[in-house]
Amino acid sequence: MFIHDLGALEDSILIFGGAYSNVDATRSVLSIASEQNIKTLIHTGDAVAYCATPCETLFELRKSGAYFIKGKGKRYVVVHGGATHISRFIFSVTPQDVFEEEIAAITHHIGPIDAVICGHSGIAFEREISGIHWINAGVIGMPPHDGDPRTQYGILKNGKMEFHRLSYDFVRAQNRMQSAGQTYGYETSLVTGYWPSEDVLPPQLRRAKG
Q1: What per-residue string of b and e applies to 170-180 under the rule 16 or more CB within 10 Å gives b?
Q2: Which CATH number is 13-204 given?
Q3: Are strands 40-43 and 151-157 parallel, antiparallel or unpaired?
Q4: Do residues 50 and 186 touch, judged by C-beta distance below 8 A?
């Protein structure tokens, strides 16, 4: 496990994941950080995937200085999917013992913590697990499978997480994918707000069949 401690950080923190090669969404969320004078940005991973502009997206992220942190006053740890496996899918309805397993793996390496910030699963949520604050801010590159094309990010301020929806030109992002020949379902998701597959989702988060 690679561990990098950046020490204490002040003020609000903008948290987002899954830029997914979507430069339009990336520029939109970075403009929010600029407008609100938020200097600290965390990207939880999956910068390149699905959409049509990987190079442009990586350029914007690198230019922004987004990074991973150990946070202010309390001890925040950032992982991608999980500590036991980088690509582990963890959702709001995931059984508590899974969260406890992940927290145990983290504390085994670095000692006591106050909160975990993760990404990968694509849907924002927060849970309290035996006194540990678990946060997933969602992703900006794809909507969270709820019929709304707006994507998700969060702002952490004074230990409180605020979840927000990101409005951006998703039609332009869709056009970029279609022009690049990336027509395998995710280009439709950008507009409909629903993923092309529910294979990774637990039953509680899938669309009702009728």
Answers
A1: beebbebbeee
A2: 3.60.21.10
A3: unpaired
A4: yes
User: pTM score, two decimals?
Assistant: 0.89
Beta bridge pairs of residue 77: 116
Torsion of CA 34, 39, 40, 45, to 10 degrees: 40
Say how far apart CA 4 and CA 26 lie, in whole Å.
24
103 forms beta bridges with: none
pLDDT band at 11 (very low <50, low <70, confident <90, very high): confident
Q: Distance of CA 9 to CAs 41, 60, 70, 134, 147, Å?
A: 11, 22, 8, 19, 36
User: Over the stretch 144-181, which tens digit does the pLDDT of each residue have?
Assistant: 999 999 999 999 998 899 999 999 999 999 999 999 99
> Contact 155/16 with Cβ under 8 angstroms?
no
Q: How confident is the model over 131-144, as pLDDT tens digits?
A: 999 999 999 999 99
Nearest to 166 by CA among 147, 138, 127, 185: 138
In angstroms, the CA 124 to CA 3 distance is 24
Q: Where are the domains of the chain?
A: 13-204
pLDDT value of residue 72: 42
Question: Scanning the structure block, which residue is given the tokens 């403009």?
Answer: 31
